[in-house]
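note to self — DONT lose this again. spent like an hour looking for the file last time. sequence + predicted structure for the chain T wanted, 89 res
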Amino acid sequence: MQGCLRLHPADNVVVALRRLGKDGRLTDTTGPIVTRQPVPALFKVAVTDIRKGEKVIKYGMCIGIAIRLILKGEVVHTDNIKSNYVFET
């Protein structure tokens, strides 16, 4: 078991399939990923460094913009990305 799921080939994040501690190991098509902090199950993990201002890609689509440098193996969540979703009324 790889321990993660890449939902689209263009994604720069994977979904952790189980809870992992710091220095947890995942295997993706890009190679091994070592987690930089504890990762809750079903959270996103960066598979490459994502620079501030770069798009975060999941499902092959932009789900947000990095508000700071996100290092490979780091959890990707609301503290380091800004959603690009626009609510319409």
